Amino acid sequence: MIRVNDLTDEERARYAWQISTPDIGETGQRKLKSARVLITRVGGVGGAAAYYLAAAGVGKLVLAHAGEIRPADLNRQILMTTDGIDQLRVDSAARRLRELNPNVEVQTVNNNVTADNVAGLVKEVDLVIDAAPVFEERLALNTQIVRQRKPMVDCAMYDFDAQLTTILPGKTPCLACLFANFPTHWKREFPVFGAVAGVVGTMGAVEAIKVITGIGQPLAGRMLIANLREMTFRTMNLQRNPQCSVCRGV
Ligand SMILES: [Zn+2]
Question: 87, CA 20 to 30 Å: which among 77, 79, 119, 169?
Fold first, then answer.
């Protein structure tokens, strides 16, 4: 009997170069195949994460991102295409991912994370990649992943600066531990080179692969802080806030 997550010959061939990673093997590949990941949103950061998770053979990707492609998206949102301007972003993203890897199931949600949809979206997956550009979405995701005990890779960038951490509810600080007060000066539009966003999203994909397969040391309780202008990388240890309104008692 063939189990659902057994690999086909086509998949063994497709993933051969990563299956040869000593602590991955076919066992790790089957874990990737059985994994379901929510990515919100699939712009400069999330699009890169989605592309590499599709390449890696994650079984199901749920993409949440509202709206149509605008010309100003195209310097960074690498899953969007010029001929898709004025068409839905998630449709372009899903098409590009399926072109790369038809084995991956792609589910699209033409909406950003909101208080109304966040619980249902998180419930459908095993792991979340947070690439949302606004803090309200990040906080809504944070509350739900803590409530549902799901890991979340939190990717953030501004200009040439990048921050990355992986939240494991009950083990690491959550976003609300780190940011008691969210910035009020935040602008929806901010400086972005696609290459910088892509670095952050790609590293987010690496974190997701590690958490799903159980290899390496994810950025659990640590934050990677990268300055790509100076090309410096450092990590700082993070502390839980015992009074945190979201993860206290978890
Ligand atoms: Zn917390």
Answer: 119
